Amino acid sequence: MKKRIRKPTRVAAVRRKTKETDIQVRLDLDGAGKSRVKTGIGFLDHMLTLFAKHGMFDVELRAKGDLEVDRHHTNEDAAITLGKAFFQALDDKAGICRYGFFYLPMGETLVRVALDISGRPAVYLTADVKFNQRGENYKLEDAEHFLESFCQQAGINLHVNVLAGKHHHHVIEGIFKGFARALDAATRVDPRVHGIPSTKGTL
After folding, report:
1. Closest by Cα among 55, 42, 46, 126 to 85
2. Cβ–Cβ contacts within 10 Å for residue 68, how many?
3. Nearest-5° angle of CA 93, CA 203, CA 31?
4. Please, are residues 183 and 115 in contact by the beta-carbon 8 Å criterion?
């Protein structure tokens, strides 16, 4: 396994404050998987903690939102702010691998994730399986909206396919873990890559 090249500049701090939420994020792309996350949405905290752990990102995220209304604004704005932090930390994207993919098995669940840090954001999520939808605290549609909001800001083209699954918790956790692993692969610096990994000269 190749040793990760540490670039101290791959750190970003972003704050997003609106009438609905106040989100603060600090991100180190070349971290050790450490996290301090508090959004007020327990399941999302769990997902972002394991996202940091399996992506080897150091993530600090604090969110105050209008949860008395519902979880939508906090979920969306946390994703927007974290996505902006990734965009800033990647800077001009020089030297990165750019592409990442991962198959994530979790119990009966199997998730495939593939992504391109292309600067042309889009999210395609398919889950042609029937699974237990008891997770009223956080649904698959919340996870999909999080990914859409994140990728829009980070400039990522993302494909997620739930190939098998039955339990709500496993399906969403498999998605976040697979996304973390694929993003880790795509953001790594490859010493063979000189400049921007595109024939266009920009991403």
Report:
1. 55
2. 5
3. 25
4. yes
Each residue's pLDDT tens digit, 56-111: 999 999 999 999 999 999 999 999 999 999 999 999 999 999 999 999 999 999 99
131 within 8 A of 168, measured Cβ to Cβ? yes
CA distance 113 to 178: 6
Amino acid at residue number 8: P
Please list, residue by residue across 76-92, b when 16 or more beta carbons sit within 10 angstroms of its beta carbon and e when fewer do. bbbbbbbbbbbbbbbee
CA-closest candidate to residue 45, choices 28, 29, 31, 65: 65
pLDDT tens-digit readout, 34-65: 999 999 999 999 999 999 999 999 999 999 99
162-173 b/e (C-beta count within 10 Å ≥ 16 → b): bbbbebbbbbbb
Contact 15, 23 (CB under 8 A): yes
Question: What is the pTM assigned to this prediction?
Answer: 0.92
In sequence order, what are the residues at sequence separation of 6 or more whose Cβ sits closer than 8 angstroms to the Cβ of residue 181?
A: 54, 55, 100, 102, 104, 113
Q: Find the length of the chain.
A: 203
Q: Please give the Cα distance from 55 to 185 (Å, whole number).
A: 8
* Domains with residue ranges and CATH for the chain: 11-187 (3.30.230.40)
Q: How far apart are the first and last CA of the chain?
A: 27
